[in-house]
Amino acid sequence: MRYFRLFILFLKHSLMNLMIYRSNFIIWSLVSLGWVVITILFFELIYLQVDLIGDWTRPMMYVFQGTYFLTVFIIWGLLWENMERFPDLVNRGELDQYLTKPINTQFMVSLRTIDPSNISDFTAGILLLGYGLNAGGYQLNLSQVIIYLLLLFCAGIYLYATWFTSVCLSFYTDRLRNIHHLFPSLRQVWRVPQTIYSGWLRLIFTYVIPVTLAATVPAQLLLNQVNLGNIIILIIAALAMLLVSHTFFKFSLKRYASASS
Amino acid sequence: MLKKYKAWFKIGLINAYYHRGEMAVWSVIHTVPLIAMLVIWPIIYQGTDTIQTYNLAEIITYYIAGNFITGLIQNNFDTWLSGTVRRGDIAKDIIQPIPIQPKTLVGESSWRVLRQIAFGFPLLIIILVISQQPFIWPTPVGALQLAVMMVIGFLISGLFNLFVVGTAFVFEQAQSLTHLRWALVTILGGSLIPLTFFPRPIQTIANLLPFKFVYAVPTNIWLGKSTINQFFIDVSLGLIWILILSIAMWHYWKKTIKSFTAVGN
Predict the structure, then answer these.
(1) What residues of B are in contact with residue A34 (Cβ under 8 Å)?
(2) Which residues partner with B50 through β-bridges?
(3) From CA B39, how far away is CA B45, in angstroms rounded?
(4) CB-CB under 8 Å, B198 with A196
(5) Whole-prediction pTM
(6) To the nearest whole angstrom, how far is the Cα of B192 from the nearest Cα of chain A?
(7) What is the DSSP string of A211-258?
(8) Is the minimum CB–CB distance between B126 and chain A shorter than 8 Å?
(9) CA A124 to CA A130: how far, in whole Å?
(10) Does A203 lie at the interface with B, CB-CB under 8 angstroms?
(11) Residue pLDDT, tens place only, A42-94
(12) Can you tell me the distance from the alpha carbon of A229 to that of A76, in angstroms, rounded to the nearest whole number?
């Protein structure tokens, strides 16, 4: 409860900051919208040529892309600014301000600043979902929606934990100032449904680095194509990576040296 | 004059070598989008041989070769150089006897050359071996044409970057223009999808604009899809664009730099 109240406080503070720099919010919202348009444009141009991409029809792909944009909104809105700042905090020895606080440091560094300027991802996600479900004639019930939201939450946890683990490499070298860009580049991988991958790529991105499940599993639920095995993998991966990220962070902190801030 | 740029190129190589860890990460980041493309396009081509004049081998080569080419010619210095302008650190570069614009382009070229030799080319070979997809290599004549067009593409890309940096003198969120630049190259440059996939009116607009020189034109030369006549037309158009953009950029910097103030550098 305490951490939830803190999260709400961080959100309020971030929104207040946003209102001071309103033009920044508008500009970056437009940038975010631009990238949404580009992603949709790619699939629209493909579907002008073919009816199916694998087993995915156009409405199904819209449901998938809608889910993808919701995962992007969760990750980028909540985490980008914090992950971008993290290597600098470590390399400049400024992590003290978080370490000395009487709350979980990982929570603090991960969620201190929230940036809702990628609200266009959220809007696009909802619109694409609605359009895809309607065009495909899919009917939803309440339990599906609840489980969908839970699966999105699991996907968010997994993606966060993997990203955070990768930025913790900042403790080991001061020459990788771009390490926080490495995990986000994998969004190009989970932008494509997991069922389209085959062979060893599918094995890697399902069992080793199951990023492809992030958008595929929730989308499949809405499309009445439940894959229980993938759901279990996603839940286990989320919990396991959260534990790994926390353990690795605590272990890496032993290498941290303050700069007396 | 050339000695200064040659020296600056060497300094750029030393600097790039010092940041080889970051360079390796950027190379991986640059290559990751290929994974999705190499997976999705064979699926799209199931049941069909040709889509919009590209067969499967050509479309796969389009993306792999395009990825390698843009690793060499697509500049991205506007992101960090805009930050340098906003902090006022650019003062020490402005007062040097080499103009900052050509100096930046020379430094960027050394970074990209080293990056592609050290990481880009090995990653290309790894992708070719792992993907086991058909791949088309350029002919010797095509390679020469490609070299010429890559220089043109590098200069055009650099000039767009310099426009964004020039804007940083007057606009705080100039880095948002970097995304605009990326978006224009992605759509109108052909890096999202070959330009022939777009409706005719968009193809006409894209063919007139300079963004295609950063991706579509060199990649089609690699594929052997550009005739000798088309090559000379593209070279002429590219040189005209370089001239227009250079003059426009020079005047733009003269105007915007008047807003710059440095504090005790």
Answers:
(1) 179-180, 183
(2) B55
(3) 11
(4) no
(5) 0.89
(6) 7
(7) GGHHHHHHHHHHTT---HHHHHHHHHHHHHHHHHHHHHHHHHGGG---
(8) no
(9) 10
(10) no
(11) 999 999 989 999 899 999 999 999 999 999 998 888 898 899 889 888 888 88
(12) 28
